[in-house]
């Protein structure tokens, strides 16, 4: 029985991966190649923490406002507001996408956060802003959410509460930036397709069959450098339908130019249908297994009584 469930889960994971392959195959290699991971410059945090606080408070306010409009006329719950506040400094969550649009610019003896029109590659500056955001808000995210839920302040009042009263991030002016500070890297914008793919990946977090989902470049997928090595072969029918040669599939050019968003949506819908089929199949097998056990126990009980 455990083997059956494992097979079904493996098939589900393959189906999710197939959807991701559809997305990745539409992105040029130059955009999807592995990039160096940026490291936060902790020494820069004192110079930007007040600005970061103002931006994160503004983000919480506007995201709560947008979420409220989505669920209207239903009232937004305190839990939903807390969830936004908890995720606003976590780049793995979509609530923190605002960080990707910020460039740290040197102006005299100050560092300024300048918002760009599009999302940029997440290098050291991006990680620095995330770290500053986390240090500023800390464990005060729940208090900020509670204040917004109960008091319903205006934007300016909420920013002042978070950055002066709650965290103290803006109580004093930032110190001057040292003249010998090494300049940060330039802001490099992402392509719209790459940004859309990353948003899709975030939205698929926690999806059945996709635990601990890992990002692969298109080059890796073309060379089939993904998944666990030496794993057991899945003999499930749906697993056999999964393309065994991803490299070949990715190299093939579509006969017609199709809108990439439509392809993504179609891939997700197909994966969803397959996942539902797997769920139904596992449920049926569980019921059948339980029925066989009940029959077995019944026969055993009758046999025991006959012996007596």
TrEMBL record:
Disordered, as annotated region: 226-257
Keyword Signal tagged: yes
Descriptive protein name: Saposin B-type domain-containing protein
Keywords tagged on the record: Signal
Annotated Acidic residues bias: 230-241
Leader sequence segment: 1-32
